[in-house]
Amino acid sequence: EDMIPNQLFFIIKVDKRKCNPKYITWYLQSKDVMRYLDKFTSGSVIKAVNKKILEEVEIPLPDKSKQDKFVELLENFENEKNATLEYLEMKENLINEKIIISLKGAFLYNNKSKWLKKKDTSM
């Protein structure tokens, strides 16, 4: 792949016969590794980790088939999570819509962007 990284990024190349890149990505983004790296970050606005520190991170490397199963599990969970979030967003929209429809039944909306009680239409 053609890439031009700046000094804030590292390119990690893996042997795809031995490693699933998504497994490596997941591991490096795990809470334990992030906590570890957090101890060594520098910079107040943009956090950066020294290359030497990153190279010291030991990555447990089960056999490739096990990594693939982990990735499949993670992807399935991510799909389920996204579907759940989508469902909850739709449900929230539906509830909000029902409330607005209910409010419109009890109130009238005039051109001055004010809610008026049905009985109070003198404005």
Distance between the termini: 67 Å
Proportion in β-strands: under 5%
How many DSSP-defined strands? Answer: 2
Q: What integer value in Å does the Rg equal?
A: 26 Å
Average pLDDT score: 83
Q: Biggest sheet, in brief?
A: 2 strands, antiparallel
- Classification by helices and strands: mainly alpha
The poorly predicted ranges are none
Strand order of the largest sheet: 1-2
Helix content: 40-55%
Order of helices and strands: HHHHEE
Shape by Cα distribution? elongated
Query: How many DSSP H or I helices?
Result: 4
Name some characteristics of this structure.
123 residues; mainly alpha; two-stranded antiparallel ribbon; 4 helices; elongated
Written description of the protein model:
With 123 residues, the chain is mainly alpha-helical. 52% of the residues lie in helices and 5% in strands. β1 and β2 form a beta hairpin. The protein is elongated, with a radius of gyration of 26 Å.
What's the gist of this structure?
52% of the residues lie in helices and 5% in strands. The chain is mainly alpha-helical and 123 residues long. Strand 1 and strand 2 (115-117) form a beta hairpin.
